[in-house]
């Protein structure tokens, strides 16, 4: 991996982190009046996978989608405006945090029904193939979504039609507060489910952006060259509460120890250390990055705050074309 | 004047042929679509003409395949998804309602889902509780969906072509007992606008608002009533959502009497909406209580011995109308009662 | 006299506690049931008391788990299945409607499905199009299901206990904005019969028929109307199926005016059924057009800036009532308009 | 396998065949006014599996359920009466061919929504386990049902809770007129889907009743002794049309050759030859069996024909308890 690329991946992760942290900071102002599912701790998957794509590809995601949207280059102003319920939001205020879209960036949409965008993504790949568009579709979802029947229906069809898809499962071990042990049989790795549908399936450390990138690149290449779908399971960890801006280790569904172990394995810290250690990144450059992000953030938030709310009658806009 | 007659099923088939020929982004998918029976004949010949890429069967996975259709629509295709019984769509409510109906809305008008879902409803020949439901009232409840139920072959073709060209998800419900009925259908490609009811018969004494197959029963009742001196106006709704409220209200304002008949359950059903609409908007014109004649409040029993009492018929509309008109209805020997009631016609020998 | 007050959520919790203590075949299952938040507090303490065999979480697999609940019910268990939002039940319509609603019927009365499905509906705090639907009209349409929507803490407990003891599948819909509201609830175990409406306020000028949270809005409007000299009778439906038609009809026969308010979409919704019922059965008693005040014909927008106009409020009921009474409604400074409209109370800071 | 048992299995298959053939004979009279999905050609699975069960176990099935009902000892009179839509039918006329039940025989129910009884069967096992009933649940379904998401949701839960279930998949290669190749990825055996859920899974010739029996017995023993669920895939073939009483090879969805090959492998013929060859069965005994079945059939049909139809008002019976 070139230094340039690694720095790019690092920047992408850092940017996601800072955006999420800004939500943490501002959420208590009660101006973002919608549920938020933060991805702090999971940034490497978003950054690593999306770096292998172009805006002419197509990305889908679920409720925990901020990172995917941002890593694909989704417009930050439109993102913040959407969080604030403004008319200038990426969904004109119709969606909030759980519905993101930026067609120019290839981010087709995220929705909060668990598993809901999986068949839609498969269909997008199918539609693109029928139209001979050279599009790779990436669908992000959690390990919980693999319990929904529609996940299997989607994989079966993807395999049947040899569709250009990369299924990206972020296995963070929990569905809301429920551990895997209460939901799936013991000693069965998630990625083997996809294998059963004849889809090449791999498992990797989701907190190492280089490994994520390598694995995703192979999968995307396979898809692009007609080799069909791939399933990637990345083990990772969500730091904050399932929904909301707080920490919640104290409420008892997981241990502080477990959290701290994963915090140790912070994907951003990890890459930063490597970059610094090998002198691929200077402290000055790092500061520059932080400044760039912070500036962009300030602008976006100012934009969001100063944007108008949608008018009452927009309730009836866009129900039908 | 071209008075070419073809059946409802042939009209559907012709609409599909023409839509696919006109627009290469139209494709059709469903269990049985390319098989030798071709969805009661409605998809026959499509495979040969348009190839297996555009005319395809699918796994038995209704929710997933609905999602697939939606996704392909987002990429510019115009899928037509078909289920041989509406009951199977119960597995796909998530994708139909959470995604198809809302995609355009929830992303602020970006992209749309030009999807047609053909669902076949039926009655008779022992289909029983899980194979003969009629769920239009559910679909009509959901903003973002359009809901169409043609009665005549001509409407079947024109409404299907309009549905396919529509950029929104359209639920297109075909009653199995209409498939073999013939009528005049223009050969060329044409559309009938969604959202316009059809006045199937003019009259000034009583308005019957009907959906799909019940329109035929209404027309039958109207003939008998005419003999008894009552002129019925029959309004074939055709499009349940958007609804042509004006045509219905105008008729009731004229006749002062409203009878609604529908193929779905009465309670919380589409017929309730029509009565409510009229009660709200034309209350002062009503000369008597409005009335609903739709499915009784029970699942479908299988035995033909009781199924024949389950489904409302022309005779029920006749009786209800007489009552509304204050007529002592003659104990007419109604022909309909002497025939088997679980088949649409003599050629039908099951299973569906 | 014991005037112990607890919240709606505590009342649900108490009902679950007592039902599980009384009958070892009762078990409760759902995403989040045993977790630290305990379904908005309604299932807290159950795990500790009854163990993980009877209080369990589940995979994210709504249709399958509904089938599992049904199967266990066939073997003599009494499952209570819980979804944190009714929208998730869209994935389970097949098992709910094809199986749960029909099992007893389709096998000729052998076995039954004593299943309670708790579904939470809500509004506000940016839940948006896929997380705030209100689907009671669908369930009420289906014979074989019972559909319950309590408003008061007392009813919540009594109706839930009755639902659990009922041998049929009962869809039990809780409005999220009721959970924190307190009221008198007897400590002992008691039931309130399904199928009986509650007259929440007596009056002779106008009948408001309401469901769930809208009952509170109706009572608020009734207070204002009383000040304007209009005495409203508020009927809290409680049980949508079976429906207590008699109480509603008797009230309308007395008042001559009907306003229906419901948390679901207006078109083809439960409110249409009530208007249709009254139009059919008490038409001659109506002094003016009946009226529906329910959700507008749109998916839920997320932005709080527009969501506040989306949901009907007491003020809308007030205005509609004034119109029906022929009153020029004073441009009252209605307190409600000055507060945030996307939260039930000040303690609420999201997300649901 | 004892001779006694083999003869019993043979008899069971023969009985199913003769019942189905009688439907073929009488269906044109148009008194059975309901769809029928005949299992001619697939009898070995029903006979072999059900012989390992007792009436205190619990069996579920789908649209093609006649054989399963009969092999479990479902009442023949009630069966025929149900086919004729009579009040004396096993569902009092409410169900017809697609809804069969005989609680005394442990046949809990069959319904025609593909995959619809799979989670219900799993739930029955769960309920039985919670009540410490020593029940094994068998769920019959076709390979088409394995495409429904609910199949996977059910298997996941069965594995998670280690439930006493035998999943029996009759793979007859078609779903209505659609071959497997249009529905599932090539070169992927159906039983491997179950393996992915950590369920021991096997594949066997479904036209050899001895092999079916052996495999089912092991699975049932595993379930009964706390070993959890097993998935059995039996390859077999439906001779007649998907729905109805005719042959339909001429309509073009499968070849006459394929059909004839499978007809050669008739499960009944196969066992009969073996029994006769080893002189375990005499021609006289065979005749006796035929006579017994024929007599039982005659009685059942007479019962059905002479039974009353349900009254009109029964439409409103049994909607609620
Ligand atoms: C169909 C459906 N069922 C349940 C929920 C409630 N829910 C929201 S997020 C979530 C967790 C899903 O877990 P996972 O897929 O692992 O994603 P994670 O939150 O861990 O990123 C659940 C169950 C939902 N949104 N949709
Ligand atoms: C949910 C659902 N979708 C579609 C159908 C239509 N259908 C009836 S039988 C059948 C074939 C199923 O194939 P399989 O499971 O292999 O059983 P087989 O008929 O081969 O025994 C289908 C698709 C249905 N009954 N239910
Ligand atoms: Mg997770
Ligand atoms: Mg098959």
Would you mind describing this structure in some detail?
The complex is a heterotetramer, with two copies of chain A (321 residues) and two copies of chain B (352 residues). In chain A, helix 1 (3-26) packs across helix 10 (267-277). Chain A is of the alpha/beta class and 321 residues long. Chain A has eleven helices and eight strands. Chain A has one domain (3-27, 35-303): 3-Layer(aba) Sandwich (Rossmann fold), CATH 3.40.50.970. Chain A has helices at residues 3-26, 43-50, 66-71, 76-83, 117-130, 149-160, 191-195, 209-224, 256-264, 267-277, 283-306, and strands spanning 58-61, 107-110, 137-142, 165-171, 174-175, 178-179, 201-205, 230-235. Chain A has a six-stranded parallel sheet with strand order 2-1-3-4-8-7, sandwiched between helices. Chain A has a two-stranded antiparallel sheet with strand order 5-6. The longest helix of chain A has 24 residues, at 3-26. In chain B, the strands form three sheets. Chain B has a seven-stranded mixed sheet with strand order 3-2-4-5-7-6-12, with helices on both faces. In chain B, strands 9-11-10-13-14 form a five-stranded mixed sheet, sandwiched between helices. A two-stranded antiparallel sheet of chain B has the order 1-8. Chain B folds into two domains: 3-186, Thiamin diphosphate (ThDP)-binding fold, Pyr/PP domains (Rossmann fold), CATH 3.40.50; 198-336, Rossmann fold (3-Layer(aba) Sandwich), CATH 3.40.50.920. The longest helix of chain B has 15 residues, at 8-22. The model of chain B has no long low-confidence stretch (mean pLDDT 95). Chain B is of the alpha/beta class. Classes of the chains: A alpha/beta (321), B alpha/beta (352). Chains in contact: A-B, A-C, A-D, B-C, B-D, C-D. Chains B and C meet through helix 4, helix 6 and helix 10 of B and helix 5, helix 7 and helix 11 of C. One thiamine diphosphate sits between chains A (63-64, 112-114, 141-145, 172, 174-176, 242) and C (31, 60, 62, 88, 91).
């Amino acid at each position: 991996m070139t230094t340039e690329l690694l720095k790019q991946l690092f920047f992408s992760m850092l940017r996601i982190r800072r955006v999420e942290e800004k939500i943490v900071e501002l959420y208590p102002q009660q101006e973002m009046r919608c549920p938020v599912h933060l991805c702090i701790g999971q940034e490497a998957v978003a950054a690593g996978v999306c770096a292998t794509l172009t805006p002419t590809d197509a990305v889908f995601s679920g409720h925990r989608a901020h990172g995917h949207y941002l890593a694909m280059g989704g417009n930050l102003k439109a993102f913040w405006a959407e969080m604030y319920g403004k008319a200038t939001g990426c969904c004109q205020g119709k969606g909030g945090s759980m519905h993101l879209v930026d067609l120019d960036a290839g981010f087709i949409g995220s929705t909060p029904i668990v598993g809901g965008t999986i068949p839609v993504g498969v269909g997008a790949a199918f539609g693109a193939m029928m139209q001979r568009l050279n599009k790779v579709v990436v669908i992000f979802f959690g390990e919980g979504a693999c319990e929904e029947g529609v996940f299997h229906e989607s994989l079966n069809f993807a395999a049947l039609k040899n569709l250009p898809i990369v299924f990206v499962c972020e296995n963070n071990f929990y569905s809301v507060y429920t551990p895997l042990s209460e939901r799936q049989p013991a000693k069965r790795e998630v990625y083997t489910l996809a294998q059963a549908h004849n889809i090449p399936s791999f498992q990797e450390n989701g907190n190492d952006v280089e490994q994520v990138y390598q694995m995703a690149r192979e999968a995307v290449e396979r898809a692009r060259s007609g080799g069909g779908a791939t399933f990637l399971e990345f083990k990772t960890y969500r730091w904050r509460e399932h929904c909301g801006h707080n920490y919640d280790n104290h409420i008892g569904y997981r241990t502080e120890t477990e959290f701290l172990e994963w915090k140790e394995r912070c994907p951003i810290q990890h890459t930063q250390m490597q970059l610094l250690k090998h002198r691929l990144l200077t402290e000055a450059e790092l500061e520059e990055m932080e400044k760039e992000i912070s500036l962009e953030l300030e602008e976006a938030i100012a934009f969001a705050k100063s944007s108008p709310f949608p008018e009452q009658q927009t309730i009836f806009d866009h129900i039908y074309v | 004047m071209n008075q070419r007659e073809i059946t409802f099923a042939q009209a559907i088939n012709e609409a599909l042929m023409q839509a696919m020929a006109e627009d290469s982004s139209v494709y059709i998918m469903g269990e049985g679509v390319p098989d030798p029976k071709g969805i009661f004949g409605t998809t026959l010949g499509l495979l040969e003409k348009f190839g297996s890429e555009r005319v395809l069967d699918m796994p038995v996975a209704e929710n997933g395949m609905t999602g697939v259709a939606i996704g392909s629509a987002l990429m510019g295709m115009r899928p037509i998804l078909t289920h041989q019984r509406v009951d199977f769509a119960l597995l796909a409510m998530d994708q139909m309602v959470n995604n198809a109906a809302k995609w355009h809305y929830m992303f602020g008008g970006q992209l749309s889902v030009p999807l047609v879902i053909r669902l076949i409803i039926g009655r008779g020949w022992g289909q029983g509780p899980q194979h003969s439901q009629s769920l239009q009232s559910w679909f009509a409840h959901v903003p973002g969906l359009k809901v169409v139920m043609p009665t005549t072959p001509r409407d079947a073709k024109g409404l299907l072509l309009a549905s396919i060209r529509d950029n929104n998800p359209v639920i297109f419900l075909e009653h199995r007992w209409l498939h073999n009925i013939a009528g005049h259908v223009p050969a060329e490609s044409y559309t009938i606008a969604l959202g316009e009811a059809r006045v199937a018969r003019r009259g000034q004494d009583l308005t019957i608002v009907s959906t799909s197959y019940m329109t035929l029963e209404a027309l039958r009742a109207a003939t008998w009533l005419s003999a008894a001196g009552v002129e019925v106006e029959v309004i074939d709704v055709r499009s349940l959502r958007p609804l042509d409220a004006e045509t219905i209200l105008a008729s009731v304002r004229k006749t002062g009497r409203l009878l609604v008949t529908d193929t779905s359950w009465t309670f919380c059903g589409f017929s309730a909406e029509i009565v409510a609409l009229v009660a709200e908007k034309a209350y002062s014109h009503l000369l008597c209580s409005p009335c609903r004649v739709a499915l009784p409040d029970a699942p479908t029993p299988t035995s033909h011995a009781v199924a024949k009492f389950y489904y409302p018929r022309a005779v029920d509309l006749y009786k209800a109308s007489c009552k509304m008109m204050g007529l002592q209805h003659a104990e007419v020997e109604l022909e309909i009662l002497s025939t088997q009631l679980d088949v649409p016609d003599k050629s039908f020998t099951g299973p569906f």
